[in-house]
Amino acid sequence: MSEVYAARRARLRERCEAAGSEAALVSGDANVRYLAGGAPTGAALLVGPAEDSLLCRGDPVAERSADRPAEGLRIVVLPAPDGDPAVAGAERAAAAGARSLAVEEHHLTVSRHRALCSVAPRLRLDDLGTAVEQQRVVKDNEEISALRIAAEIADQALGELLESILVGRTERHLALELERRLVDHGAAGPAFTTSVGTGPNSGLAGHVPTDRRVEEGDFLCVCLGADYRGYRSEVARTFVIGTTPADWQIELYDQVFAAQRAGREKLAPGTPYRDVDRAARVVLEAAGHGERLGPRIGHGVGLENDEDPRLTPSAMGKLDACVPVTVDPGVHLPGRGGVRIDDTLVVRPEADGGPELLTITTKELLAL
Questions:
Q1: Coil/strand/helix, residue 45
Q2: What is the distance between the alpha carbons of residues 243 and 237, in angstroms, rounded to a whole number?
Q3: Low-confidence residues of the chain, pLDDT below 50?
Q4: Phi, psi angle pair for 55, to nearest 5°
Q5: Cα Rg of the chain (Å, integer)
Q6: E strand residue ranges, the chain
Q7: Is the separation of the CB atoms in 341 and 222 below 8 Å?
Q8: Which long-range contacts (CB under 8 A, 24 or more apart) does 294-300 make?
Q9: How far apart are CA 289 and CA 66, in angstroms?
Q10: SS3 (DSSP) at 196
Q11: What pLDDT does 62 receive?
Q12: How much is the pLDDT for 50?
């Protein structure tokens, strides 16, 4: 894998050189990991000018033996545990004779940016922008394999929960159990805070689990994901507890399901991001839920559970092959509850079978 990380850094170096920067300082945690392999939180990566260096507060080899940096990187451990790796990186670039350095301004506070200027006053700081994030959008086979396993783990955890007794248990208890099951099946942990909503809480985006207990006739809405080797899946399903669904529950579920299917069917190389959002959104607008929809229908996943591309009404750009995204419409009816259906998929051309569905838990409206 070391050659993969070296090739990623080489692409970034070429981009910087073309823009007139002699070196790049990467400080976003996900971006550092993408270019360096294993790296502790808070590390910074200096790409060039003479060599590539990973700057850390502690020894990453000793501290994270299961997640080591790629070979070919110089590891620089700061002498003081409270030192700033980004500042040390700028100082190192200046000492190596660089006259210009591209930095991730969106990952730097004003005070950190000032600190970079103070330790290397003759170094011109350029904005690297989202160059690394843009590199990360299209995933290679190893990345997709990790995402596939992360999705399988989430499906396993969710499937086991559905086989247990649910009535009388709290949202908080169910969320904790799901996160334990994720780890039991090989995840490093949850990809994000697991959301469990029941009854009037169901269908709320990002709902934080409460002590409300599951009751007969409730909608139960679960959103979870697994972190496997840094790559994060996402899945959401909605069920009815203990009884035949009410007519309004069936109607709402069918509407959200139709919207989610319309969005999934739009996932193809060359499709504008906004067209995916629009395909799902028009279904729910026609059903009278336009004002209840969130700002987007989906987003990219990878080393972060919410990354480019964003599938929004105003998004610019088009999908490429091998881009993993979510399609996750939801509708919440205040005081009654709601439905969310969310899948992680990989964009594939029609010749390869179309979008690859990674999360395969049934989307049938089950009565549990």
A1: strand
A2: 17
A3: 65
A4: -105, 125
A5: 23
A6: 23-26, 44-47, 52-56, 74-77, 100-103, 124-127, 189-190, 195-198, 219-224, 226-228, 231-232, 235-240, 298-300, 307-311, 324-327, 330-333, 337-340, 343-346, 356-357
A7: no
A8: 294/205, 294/330, 297/259, 297/263, 297/327, 297/328, 297/329, 298/263, 298/325, 298/326, 298/327, 298/328, 299/325, 299/326, 300/137, 300/324, 300/325, 300/326
A9: 47
A10: strand
A11: 64
A12: 83
Look at the block and give the residue holding tokens 């697991």.
Answer: 194
Strands 356-357 and 343-346, by their bridges, are antiparallel
Rounded Cα–Cα distance for residues 342 and 238 (Å): 10
Can you give the pLDDT at residue 65? 47
The number of CA neighbours under 13 Å toward the Cβ of 293 is 25
Tokens of 249: 């529950």
- The string of pLDDT tens digits covering residues 279-309 is 999 999 999 999 999 899 999 999 999 999 9
Q: Is the peptide bond before 49 cis (omega within 30 degrees of 0)?
A: yes
Contact 319, 309 (CB under 8 A): yes
Amino acid at position 39, single letter: A
pLDDT at 333: 97
Q: How many CA atoms lie within 13 A of 99 on its CB side?
A: 2
Give the Å distances, CA to CA, from 263 to 75, 93, 116, 277.
44, 46, 44, 7
d(CA 359, CA 342): 9
* Helix, coil or strand: residue 168: coil
Picking from 257, 181, 173, 256, the residue whose alpha carbon sits closest to that of residue 225 is 181
CA distance linking residue 15 with residue 81, whole number of Å: 33
Both tokens of 19, joined, read: 């823009």
Between CA 230 and CA 37 the distance in angstroms is 10
Report whether 332 contacts 255 (CB < 8 A): no
* pLDDT (0 to 100) of residue 2: 82
Cβ count within 10 A of residue 265: 14
The two three-digit tokens of residue 66, written as one number: 């299961």
Give dist(CA 43, CA 55) in Å, integer. Answer: 6
